[in-house]
Amino acid sequence: MTAAHAETDTAVQPAIHPPVPPAAPGTDQDAHHWLARACAAAAAGDPAWELRFAEAGRRCRVLGDAARVDLLAAARPDAPTVTRLYRQGTAAERRAVLLALPRLDLAPAHGVPLVEDALRTNDTGLLAAAVGPYAARHLDAHAWRHAVLKCLFTGVPVTRVSALADRARGDGELARMLHAFADERTAAGRAVPADLHHVLALTEEER
Amino acid sequence: MRIFDPHIHMTSRTTDDYEAMYAAGVRAVVEPAFWLGQPRTSVASFQDYFDALLGWEPFRAAQYGIAHHCTIALNPKEANDPRCLPVLDELPRYLVKDQVVAVGEIGYDSMTPAEDTAFAAQLQLAADHGLPALVHTPHRDKLAGLRRTLDVVRESALPTDRVLVDHLNETTVEEAKDSGAWLGFSVYPDTKMDEARMVALLREYGPERVLVNSAADWGRSDPLKTRKVGDLMLAEGFTEDDVDLVLWRNPVAFYGLSGRLALDVAATGPTHEGNSILRGAPAHPVPTGR
Known about the structure:
Chain B: Belongs to the metallo-dependent hydrolases superfamily. The structure holds two protein chains of two kinds. Chain A is about 65% helix and about 0% strand. Chain A is mainly α. Chain B has helices spanning about 15-25, 45-55, 55-65, 90-95, 115-130, 140-155, 175-180, 195-205, 225-235, 240-255; strands spanning about 5, 25-30, 65-70, 100-105, 135, 165, 180-185, 210-215. In chain B, strands 1-2-3-4-5-6-7-8 form an eight-stranded parallel sheet. Classes of the chains: A mainly alpha, B alpha/beta.
């Protein structure tokens, strides 16, 4: 669907939101069933799929972020729609957009700004979602190094950084930044994150 | 003592407050959208504020083991500014979000025609979205404000038993209770209610459908007032079950009307393809905002 559909949301919503029963996460089976129907409708071009995207968290709590990622992959929204969903999204919706990027065939001109936005936050959930395969493929060297460093700063395990070994291998500038960070921590009497030594070892491997 | 503060403005509180609240037993909060002490002048200011209530603030709360939900609305004060009024058109896209458990704070400040219009429109939005409503009662001319509030609610599509009328006191509690609405009391250091008056009202009117909040914000207020009310209730002879009803089960029942309450914030761990780790809820509180 296109960004223009957003203008119709207000008119559509009342009919689509009957009162829901009191909080009940439901069973795995309920969640999978709900998601399968929502994905089928999204793939068929039903414009109400964006409402399903918004409510997927409470409809399929057991599935976590994966429910919204599947919905995005089924709907295959265009770039302006993806950007709007991210910008107007809750933290959970933004995570889903970031996690879905590798499945959305989005040009770097549209996808990278979303990754960069997430990397500017201090929300570790967004950071972890931002450093996936899309970032590995499209972030330039400077932005990627800072993303790795930010993971170390905020405690996001570097196992979340896609293609870490490939991109870190032989990266002297990343090694310099890691050494400087370790020196700063040591000077302050604070522990150096164990992940730092792991990444440092990767930089020392031959290209 | 498990505590649910059903009305607290955490964006204006520090991480020290979150730590102290957790230590006092607070495990869940609802943060109603309100003004900022300084009037907004554009719709964009509301959008950034709502986005923070749905993004950074729940993340911050989760780091301290506290579940954070919010209510979204155009507040009555700013309903009087034509520059802010168009935010009403933005509300539907927010009211579908998972963590939005009511429309609020709506109601009256100075009881103007602009407030009438915004109030009625937002009660309709609540009905359309299957949400209850958190209604602020005015600080000036309170009893007249409550009566007008209840009249507007009765004329709306939203049943009165899906409405929480807040900031009640000795002069307004009886008519509010008779209406069938849920009863909210804000306990403040100087104004609104204090702990002793709150316990006296609980003795007179009973704990059913009563919610006690700190309404803590950027003014003189105390995010631990909920705990202090619970302690005084016990000291004055209420049972632990009474305290649990007022400080936990009543807020869970009211906001649970949304079907969207998720109170298991501290339960972390990978559940599905590793995608749910680091969703903002580590097992042990860690510093934030570096």
